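Worked problem 6 (solution included).
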Amino acid sequence: MKTAQSYLYTAWKRLIAAYLLAALIGLATGTLLVNVGNVPPERIFEASTKRLSYALPAFDRGTRHGIDMGILLFAWNSLGAMVTMSFIYTAALFDPDHRQASPRWLRKVFCGKTRMKLLCYLPGCAQIEAESLRRLYVWVMVPLLGILLLGVESGLQVSTATYIFGSFRTAFIALLPHGLIEIPAFSLAGAVAYSAHLQMAARARNNQIRMVFQQMATHRRTLPIKTIALSVIGGLLVAGLVEAHITPWLMQMV
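Solution. The predicted structure is:
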């Protein structure tokens, strides 16, 4: 019988693999859009960095107050990672047997009664009849969807930056040094919830509602959450400092 740690390790590996595959897809897509679709690379690059652009005003204010850019990047990435890890705790809000528990209004929103038909198009959802399990199944799948989005964005950035900067090597180095640390750290944070997704899959498809939520609670208690959180935070701290100080230096050396 697989342990929570083995599910965590499997989820971590799958998330890294998903990122790499999505990055390749993004790289190919960006290249095709520029060469075949004649889409300006600047437009694609802007779209692929849109999420980060929301944090730029905060970064600007922080640097004006003397805060190191590496620390600002670390704070931004850590916030996202901790939110991702919290999915394993908010999963209990989908339990229909505790709908009247506090916070009642939030549980009613999460549990719901209306069948969300769009969820049927996600892998594995069509076989799940119980709506609470269907929503839970998708909820703990979010880290996978997030890492896929991140991978596509990275691929698009590299493909378009190649034309903007005139060098594939420069575009690649802009992501590689800190990415070698950042992506495994993000994947570890995502693996906390995604490992629960892998574990619950069989019982969810058999609509074993009570067993799934009991299994989810046991899985959450068994995982070394504090150790994982410290590992993620440490990795993102190093990645932020590398991105702010080492990556620009390497780009100048190319």
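Discussion: The chain has a mean pLDDT of 89.
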